[in-house]
Amino acid sequence: MNIRVSFWLKTNRMATHMSKCRTWNRVHRFGIAAYRKYSSSGSGYPNISLSTPLPGIPKPVFASVDGQEKYETKITTLENGLKIASQNKFGQFCTVGILINSGSRHEAKYPSGIAQFLEKLAFSSTAQYGSKDEILLTLEKHGGICDCQTSRDTTMYAVSAEVKGLDTVVSLLSDAVLQPRLLDEEIEMTKMAVRFELEDLNMRPDPEPLLTEMIHAAAYRGNTVGLPRFCPADNVDKLDKTVLHSYLRNYYRPERMVLAGVGIEHEQLVDSARKYLLDAKPVWGTSPAANVDLSVAQYTGGIVKMEKDMSDVSLGPTPIPELTHIMIGLESCSFLEDDFIPFAVLNMMMGGGGSFSAGGPGKGMFTRLYLNVLNRHHWMYNATSYHHSYEDSGLLCIHASADPRQVREMVEIITREFIQMGGSAGEMELERAKTQLKSMLMMNLESRPVIFEDVGRQVLSTGKRKLPHELCHLISSVTASDIKKVTTKMLRSKPAVAALGDLTELPSYEHIQAALSSKDGRLPRIYRLFR
Amino acid sequence: MAASVCRVGSTVGRALAKSRSVISYAQSLLGAPETQLTALDNGLRVASEDTGHATCTVGLWIGAGSRYENERNNGTGFFLEHMAFKGTKKHTQTALEQQVESMGAHLSAYTSREHTAYYMKTLAKDLPKAVELLSEVVQSCSLNEAEIEQQRGVVLRELEEVESNLQEVCLDLLHATAYQGTPLGQSVMGPSSTASVIKSGLNLTRQDLVEYINIHYKAPRMVLAAAGGVNHEELVGLAKSHMSGVSFEYEGDVVPVLSPCRFTGSDIRMRDDALPLAHVAIAVEGASASSPDIVPLMVANAVIGSYDLTYGGGKHLSSRLARIAVEDKLCHSFQAFSSSYSDTGLLGIYFVSDKHHIDDMMHWSQNAWMNLCTTVTESDVARGRNALKASLVGQLNGTTPICDEIGRHVLNYGRRVPLAEWNARIDAVTPSVLRDVCSKYIYDKCPAVVGVGPIEQLTDYNRIRSAMYWLRF
């Protein structure tokens, strides 16, 4: 959808000088609405149109750009195990935050849902700041915003603010992470917000988050990353301050944390860290880690089904057709292994999206799922491939959706695509996928918060950071035999299946497994006596 | 890690960190590279900012949009945007798509009421190819008949999809009622089935599209903007070689001139009790894009702010309206918005609430407006200023937003407004200035109101009108 609807920063104007617009000299232009002269008496406000530069601005000193891409990421480790990583970048603003190796995968010994609670409770009242309002007010003085995101394996507290506010920001982060007050009324509000989010997840027509939960539960039955990322409805009331503190005591420890920053000098960040994070005593007390879950993700494969009435999911006046959604996945590899890059290229080559439109040239209209699946079978609404990867395992899956009566054909098409991945990749196809992956990587890394997340995550899991051009080099050196090798390994794993909607035509799990181990990917024929 | 550290101390950022006496803070606000602007002989302007990234965004911003259409050909610009990537005289559709995909580039376009843009995100080394493809798309689009027929279906389907996005419907209706009877009241996508019997695109022919291009795609109304790892001289050279052919003369010397679009205080109510939530928007006529009043109005909107039920802040939010909305559970979300065009604009508040709180939410929204006109305090204004400055800079994250801003600014203002100037203009907004400017646009003015959904409780128009002033004698 390409309509631009304007909100409070949008300005649309067409120069009213179309007949004489051969020059772009800056001449005073009073547009057609000249009758709207500002007539208020002497408030000293400059009554000059934006087409003319304002007098009295100091002469600008423009930065000259010189290969800032080649800056190294600097990493220091403090005495208590906390790592500090930073990447310099010119600009008035910086992004600084703390990443912690803690997420829903570590909740095996606790009621599930702590991750979601901590996300909603982030940046509430702390030892120094009486309320969220105070935090926001302090940040506003430095033009800053704060945010927290939790995922299956990482928790990230991030602040973007002006560079000159670095000290305040680090002090605020240390407070928010190590000294949250977790007042009863805040926990009550969090419970409400969590309930609202769960309701919203079930109500919305796009079932993607639900399917992601289901496929993880199917692939990693009952362990680590298979544990639910969203709080199950009956756990909402079980979580309170004691449970949260016992979790935080084990997992929010300096050796599991990284303080990452983009756009600041490394020495300044280290100094602030020494001041606020080196000897900070967390509010839940320091005690040796008793119960840290170090389990490795066990890929089990399996199936998770959810029968749901999807006949009336539209929230607006236009009806959305009833669809059944399936997701079929196989084990890939962790992001620490060398095979990770070929898997990423494979994922890009499969591509896919919605059948209505790819979104324009460049959004993957020549990927396999478009060429082989969506362009040939117009009754499929959606076929997209995803790749999830963690530090000890990974999952490559394909999501497809169609009318409930055609579920069987849909499953067969997807299993055949999986088998064909094991064939040899065309040269042009491979080159295109590699170029698209490289360009997507570079385009994403234009934005400062993305660079921050990249620095933080890489240092958290490996202790080092691979710079973008190194990654591009690794991508360029992927060959067709690499793809074949990783696909063969992948096809030997047990499939994980998630299905949502009207499931009467869904083939059994054994049939899907048989299809994925066969040569051509077809489901076993079933003979029915009664048609 | 093979990368070596480049510590050339000549850039402003590092100089700032080392010794603040060298460059003052005000000067260092331009920690970004300069935007350079050149004009070609045929009037086409070329503007770019070299940020040193490995990627870049380059595109053509054209001063044409739905405002230049009339009742008969409304929707042409949008249709043309769909046809643009379906083949040119040199490349067939498949060839064009394959080229773009193999470059790993993204090609996109958008149309609004006064602007149209075609732009491409790609790796910096592919800039020449990108400019060549863009110039082909704009100048020699093939527009073959079979494709036109096929795209009609696509456009109709997109129209249907948009109708389920109630926010878009609400704001489109707002324009339709506020600027009724004028070209700005038209929707960008063309007449929808709710507004008129004639469905968009059903009666547009190839001739309409060709005429539209001939009349509106003229060099003085175009800007080639780029941001990222681009060299300005190289870009100008490419523009000269590919775009010198864009015409700058109008046939028969008939120059399209924009007629003023009057604002009419009015309302439209689309009641549908089957929908779960009501979407309501209220707006007054605002400032035009280049008017100096736009800055105080932006600060005013920052004071009112925005809110969504998923914000975790609870009742500790900085905006007064947000606090009231949370405490009394008045709405699911609201935001203050402003749209500006070349000689007029809209300034308003849009909110989504359930059917029992519409009246209260409307009352408090107008109360927030009256507060701006009469009793706004220094601390509120200080917060609004800070928030506005932060968001202006924070939005420029990545080459595409920067390129978009360059394109729009050059079309609107003839230059790119530097950050230091925005900051100076924002700092000049004091509470008394804010009160004066808001009173000029809001106080005792007839608003345009739109309601979509279960809006039985939406206040009667006369009562809304009478809440646009306070009896304060």
UniProtKB/TrEMBL annotation, chain A:
KW Mitochondrion (keyword) present: yes
| Peptidase M16 C-terminal domain ranges (all copies) | 239-437
Provide an example Pfam family for this protein. Peptidase_M16
According to UniProt, the name of this protein is Mitochondrial-processing peptidase subunit alpha
Q: Name one GO molecular function term.
A: metal ion binding
Query: What does this protein do, in the record's words?
Result: Substrate recognition and binding subunit of the essential mitochondrial processing protease (MPP), which cleaves the mitochondrial sequence off newly imported precursors proteins.
Recorded name of the encoding gene: PMPCA
Which terms are listed as keywords in the entry? Membrane, Mitochondrion, Mitochondrion inner membrane, Transit peptide
Q: What GO cellular component term, any one, is given? A: mitochondrial matrix
Extract one GO BP annotation from the record: protein processing involved in protein targeting to mitochondrion
Key word Mitochondrion present: yes
What organism is this sequence from? Nothobranchius furzeri (Turquoise killifish)
From TrEMBL, chain B:
> Per its record, how is this protein called by name?
Ubiquinol-cytochrome c reductase core protein 1
Entries under PANTHER family matching the protein: CYTOCHROME B-C1 COMPLEX SUBUNIT 1, MITOCHONDRIAL, METALLOPROTEASE
Q: Please tell me whether the keyword Chloroplast is annotated for this protein.
A: no
**What range(s) does the Peptidase M16 C-terminal domain occupy?**
203-388
Which lineage? Eukaryota, Metazoa, Chordata, Craniata, Vertebrata
Q: Name one GO cellular component term.
A: mitochondrion
Its subcellular locations are: Mitochondrion
- Renumbered to this chain, the signal peptide range is none
Q: Name one GO molecular function term.
A: metal ion binding
Q: Which UniProt keywords apply?
A: Mitochondrion
The residues covered by the Peptidase M16 N-terminal domain are 45-191
Q: Which SUPFAM superfamilies match?
A: LuxS/MPP-like metallohydrolase (SSF63411)
Xref: Pfam families? Peptidase_M16, Peptidase_M16_C
